[in-house]
Fold this sequence. Notes:
Chains A, B: It catalyses: uridine(38/39/40) in tRNA = pseudouridine(38/39/40) in tRNA. Chains A, B: Belongs to the tRNA pseudouridine synthase TruA family. The structure is a homodimer. By secondary structure, chain A is an alpha+beta fold. Chain A contains five helices and nine strands; from the N terminus they run E-H-E-E-H-E-E-E-H-E-E-H-H-E.
Amino acid sequence: MRYFIEFAYDGAPYFGYQVQPNQISVQETLEKALSTLLREPIKTTGAGRTDTGVHAKKIFAHFDFEGELMDNLVHRLNSFLPESIAVKRIFEVKSEAHARFSATYRTYNYFISTEKDPFTKDLAWQLWRKKLDVDAMNEACKILFEYSDFTSFAKLHTDNKTNICKIYQANWEQNGSLLKFTVSADRFLRNMVRAIVGTMIEVGDGKLKPEDMHRVITEQHRNSAGTSAPAHGLFLVDVGYDFLD
Amino acid sequence: MRYFIEFAYDGAPYFGYQVQPNQISVQETLEKALSTLLREPIKTTGAGRTDTGVHAKKIFAHFDFEGELMDNLVHRLNSFLPESIAVKRIFEVKSEAHARFSATYRTYNYFISTEKDPFTKDLAWQLWRKKLDVDAMNEACKILFEYSDFTSFAKLHTDNKTNICKIYQANWEQNGSLLKFTVSADRFLRNMVRAIVGTMIEVGDGKLKPEDMHRVITEQHRNSAGTSAPAHGLFLVDVGYDFLD
């Protein structure tokens, strides 16, 4: 039987989502907990592979297991796992459902603190020294929808076959002292959201004009875009599947 | 001239508010920043003396300074101070205004996470393993108003002349997965809020009945109350002065 597991994690203590030799990853920590409680080696496939320090508020993984799941497995997993990983639910899916390839969209948030705030320092980029023009940043967002090749926002030397993505949503919203970027797409390239945010900050800061986004994107080179925003402000917040509401 | 400084801090990196020999305190960190920017030794008097690990969202201190304050002092202080301390404003007050003795009330919040949440682990007590009866805890709150001697919630062997406090507000409120305790009083004894929260959790958990609060309080002994709740869930959130709105 195939199961989906929905969970959340604080990325700070991990060297990214995916299993890495000699480093602690979210995936390894989760698989160790599942294997211990289900008493057989469990391999998981995650919906995405977040980088070191990136968080997830809602992410899924799938695993196969033929035995019977105990009723209180979610509670027992949460007791076993460290405070930085929380399991929300585990449910059976069709055998062809795939956490990564069946996903129809992914949504990320990036948080920026526009006032100095000791309580968001680990979960938002502290940019209170800058005065950001949020309207200009939202103008820049609109330009993203006109393109599909995002090579300029892709990490160099990755093994992606294509840098084509379909962006469904992109906007900035100010809530109190938190400035939130929401971006949805069918897929994301490695480092893409952080590169977009870094470039948008240059727009907000006046270094770039919103219409410079055309040039940044069409040049199709990472050097055309801004520096990557730091990992600790980035959250994977949703993954969509046709078979889930 | 006397000035009030309003600020906030994450208590995690500090050995409490007050200057301690050989330990880093909030007060020492603040005084060092003020003294550097104002180019003379500045001593501050805080509105309260929070314990190690306790946070403040809104606290005041006063200091005396005869020179002229630079316009951008708040911004420069925030640049100088670590991420864990944020200065909100600095304003002149009458020379007899005293951050500690002029305060008419103080308000604390205590946060409890009733679902496992990686993102509140440093700012709320993670009690998702327990099923808490919030109605019973609110019943217990009402009993606090009937008393004024809170010796049972006071740390033993302190040099308090009196353990008499007037409680103005006390209630529990569930917002999503966060359970928030709000308590206001004219003054608080050392460790008092954490001892009240620890006792209330025993009520929520069914170990005590709400009406047991009468006995806990009238026995006037710390052993009658529950264990102290951990420091990281506690926030000083307001201090009232007649001359501020």
